[in-house]
Amino acid sequence: MVSFSVSLTGKPPSFVDRTAFPLKGDITTSEPTIRDVKAAVTTKFPKFGKERQKITISGEKAPLADDVKLSTLKGKELSVKDLGAQISWRGVYIIEYLGPILIHALVYHFPKVFYGRDVVHSDLQTFLYLFVLVHFAKREVETVYVHRFSHGTMPFSNVYKNCGHYWGLGGLVLAWDLYRPGASKIQTSNEYLRTIGLILAFAEVSNLNTHMALRALRPTGSTKRAIPYGYGFDGPLTGAWGGVSCPNYFFESVAWGTVAWVSGSVGAWVFFIVGTGQMLIWAKKKHAAYKKEFGSAYPKRKAMIPFIY
Predict the structure, then answer these.
(1) What is the mean predicted confidence (pLDDT) over 64-90?
(2) Are 184 and 120 in contact (CB under 8 A)?
(3) Which residue ranges traverse the bilayer (predicted)?
(4) Residues 113-136 pLDDT 10s
(5) pLDDT in tens, 196-229
(6) Residues 257, 272 contacting (CB under 8 angstroms)
(7) Strand partners, 166
(8) 2-84 architecture in CATH?
């Protein structure tokens, strides 16, 4: 039996009585963890689910992982903060990727509403429109059937921030500039389109392959991490510097860089540069996390761009 005491920080949700804190009690499990403390808070306040609780050591900002044992925190005071209403990561991704599909379809099929005139789209515009639909439809399918998430939920307020990139830049800005009347004058040959199609197909299939490899590393319902190997992760020779920690980001960047290059669209370049910049930041963090967790066992790789970064 282990006794616990947890105080409340920040603004409490309406259904939590601040006078109930510090919340004290006993945990009878053999190896009580932070997960048990969250369960005790939820037992006292059923609407205060574990997903919206942030447990920290009093005076510190870093959240304690659910599997941290209370025996390692003897003498430490715990605090709980409300993270607000939550939404599943899967739900956020579905909403994010649905936006570009709807917006591109509306701008492409109803140009008079957006440009004040009809547009006879060029073969290149139609080709890129179909690519956008296939790309984001693929992302929706991956969200439902492929991706496994380390965290079940995120604050609902993040939906607006996350959708800003996809609905704003990847949706309205990209679609407006790709299908505008002036761009319809750009002529391309069928051979050129086939070449571009092969490059985009390579990037999309390679990106999917990376996601499948990552999925295979994590059993259902687990947050287990392991070193990924294989296509994209390794260079020409296993462990060579040509490998990267986040090949999915690299292939994603190749796809949108190709769209920007062939279209000459300012909107496409903005979406490519902003998206690639964000992926470089994510890749650096994931690369550092791999190296910290696996130490010398982790292969010599770059974070995202082979041989460069």
Answers:
(1) 88
(2) yes
(3) 254-282
(4) 999 999 999 999 999 999 999 999
(5) 999 999 999 999 999 999 998 877 666 678 899 9
(6) yes
(7) none
(8) Roll (3.10)
Task: Identify the H or E element spanning 175.
Answer: helix 174-178
Most distant CA atoms of the chain, gap in Å = 76
Taking the alpha carbons at both ends of the chain, their separation in whole angstroms is 50
Closest listed residue to residue 54, CA positions, set 71, 44, 69, 41: 41
CA distance linking residue 18 with residue 48, whole number of Å: 13
CA distance 21 to 24: 8
Q: How many other CB atoms sit within 10 Å of the CB of residue 303?
A: 23
CB 205 within 8 A of CB 142: no
How many Cα neighbours within 13 Å face the side chain of 118? Answer: 1
Asked if 45 and 15 count as a contact pair (C-beta separation under 8 A), the reply is: yes
Strands (E), the chain: 2-9, 23-27, 53-57, 78-82, 86-88, 153-155
Give me the mean pLDDT over the 58-82 stretch.
88
Q: Which residues pair with 87 in a beta bridge?
A: 154
Tell me the C-alpha distance between 177 and 169, whole Å: 11
Residue 32 carries which side chain, given as an amino acid letter? P
The C-alpha atoms of residue 128 and residue 125 are separated, in whole angstroms, by 5
33 three-state secondary structure: strand
CA dihedral sign of residues 148, 150, 152, 157: negative
pTM value? 0.83
Q: Name the nearest CA neighbour of 242 among 160, 292, 299.
A: 299
Give the start-to-end residue ranges of the domains of the chain: 2-84, 85-143+151-187, 188-309
**What pLDDT score does 241 carry?**
55
Q: Which amino acid, 48?
A: F
Backbone angles phi, psi at 286, to 5 degrees: -65, -40
